[in-house]
């Protein structure tokens, strides 16, 4: 039809033609599936499967010959050490994340207030703790806390305060472990929050200033709401990573003194790998999961809800 | 002109900012600095407990000892091989997966794209025990030597790196306008050519950032090596230093600190030269996701 | 021969129809413009010709060969995108030669072709620059150069001028027309701007809601629109469309604009319109240039009338006046020297020799 007007054609296609078109579309999606297959296979085989397997493993006896159901679980519940590990892990994770977030937030503001040229230099210096492999830097702290040669104690005794048994006393050991974790993780929060601060439009602050807000109110009413998402994400990830921390505790105290600084990971390692009781170790590890799951659920739900509001 | 009081206020705020920043910088940089100082001391000087914060008789003996120590060199070599292999595998898997998830559609691809980072909810500290058993079992069944060999790390480390690298790449790929692929398709490119000649060059910053992340994570991992490798010739650097140099009651702190410093060097060097990419990799996850 | 034929082409996205069965024949070397409001299906049609969208049903043939299952790279087409889609990491030269390099064309041939096209478009000096160093107009020309250098059977343009400012748009319009005269290739051009359509096209295809309303030369569409939609879409300021009734009294046919003016139907139209007398829902269409100020004697078919003007817009060469006829905002193009004033009554002349009578129910021009 060269000129003129097209006649009204049927509004819907006959069903058979539609199916043919869809078959062609599916061919392209096979290529897509195969490209993503290695990823799916990796996660399925080395993450999802072991996770479920550990459930099964936790229900075997030490020799892994027969099934004992919830025997390992009830065994743990009755032990005081188990509850102490739970308490320690929670205190460790929550307080460390709190301080990391706070310090990261404060220092991010400090860097953000600098003239732009200098920011890069400071940012570079301040991220160093996070760049160094945690095992290596923990060794340095181990040396700094050494009972005989601690460089900190050297300063403290010179100042008249007396030496501190950093790793020898249970309470100080817990403090030391949290301190090292905060030292290691705060720069991460710093970097994230600094990036987020830059994305808050300057005009919002100007509007707030005109409305009469002081610096504290600007932070409460402008900065924090705008950064809600990033704060939630970083806190969630940090809770997971801190809760599951192994390196720092293992190197500094190996769980001591008298098992007082054990977290789930180090205790599971001691029981499972060093003690040879894999099912019990698996059982201990599994207790991390529900707590992580609950935290993840709440924070993810919060993010989604806020995402829909925006 | 700003009123004098406002300028003075600003200047005081800036001064206090610098003061606190210096404090934090000192706190953050003290341990690595102390590592360096200790590494230059002789054992004699260390046990003499003179001022620990300064070196009076600097020596390179510790460095020399490590560079001639077969154990240390083995650790270093193992780490390099494992890390480079893991980086290669990771980037291969991640790039293809990211391309597929950000550009093409198949059943479940949307959930996979947003959910890939959820794998981090299952930390290595949960997985290392079942994996230990699984590897032992596979070795029994098939005879492939998996226990106490460094190459098992090449298999397992990607679980730590691939999800995040994929996530970073998806963010970068998604920000490339669709018209660019279409223009390339019309110009005559196959899907593979679109990936290699258009996508990768344009998303190069993301690729570099992901590569850095993969390397750093493989180099620094401690738990999996501790669990799966025990003989001296199979250890990688972090696990090697901790287990072999800390034996018994006498620690050779000079050597330990030197080893720790050398072990921290590759990531630090990469960071120093490619700092912007390093940081971009971290924050990309936040701002784009 | 590079003609393009569309036969009963359908496109559905998850059961939602975007293109509902169109037939179109584009001759070799013809410049055809698909024009219509957003969502009318013009871009979808273009992308189906390009192979970037699957065809749900129907056939598309390029150069006589059906290309439904042929991927874009084998269709021998080139496309210019709305936001240029230049490869940011390649120089202008590399952008233009990318397609040729993929086909492994020898280097000296590539060089020759790129230089020739750069010459036509005046971008010879930009060959070593990267896209981010170019202005909008320059990028647009590079995008066109990339298409021309491939020497394809068909050029496809997807609203290429929408991202340019008004002045640049007018300039580039002329450039495109000049290029088409030099490089005579079949071209399918999509735009929502009817001025672009009218000025560039050999033939214009007006689309609406997935269907073709009318296909024809620009002047045909302007003076003989076939549907209400085309009548209202083409032309700026738009045609005046007013509800009316056709009365027949004592053998004479009259147009009554509901509740007011009545105009006698011109002699030459009476036979054509008589069958529709008394029908409800009729519309009267008259372009603004056919409603002028009253000056001098009137010819048969021209009908004087009087109204109160609401607004006048002096444009220099003419003054647009707006008034309400039957509740509808009506526009007339008057001589500035007539000095018509808003708020005052004015004598205007409607030239019914150019009128259109439209059936509102079917949308057809009668």
Q: Could you walk me through the main structural features you see in this protein, from its secondary elements to its overall organization?
A:
Chain A is mainly alpha-helical. Chain A is built from 15 helices and no strands. Chain A folds into 2 domains: 43 residues, no CATH class; 239 residues, MetI-like fold. The two termini of chain A are 49 Å apart. The N terminus of chain A is likely disordered. In chain B, helix 4 packs parallel to helix 8 and helix 11 crosses helix 15. The model of chain B has no long low-confidence stretch (mean pLDDT 84). Helix content of chain B is 76%, strand content 0%. Chain B has a single domain, classed as Orthogonal Bundle (MetI-like fold), CATH 1.10.3720. Chain C has 2 domains: 222 residues, Rossmann fold (3-Layer(aba) Sandwich); 120 residues, OB fold (Dihydrolipoamide Acetyltransferase, E2P) (Beta Barrel), CATH 2.40.50.140. Chain C contains 9 helices and 20 strands. In chain C, helix 2 crosses helix 3 and helix 3 packs across helix 4. Chain C is elongated and about 80 Å long. The chains are: A mainly alpha (310), B mainly alpha (289), C alpha+beta (366). At the B-C interface, helix 9 and helix 10 of B face strand 6 and helix 2 of C.
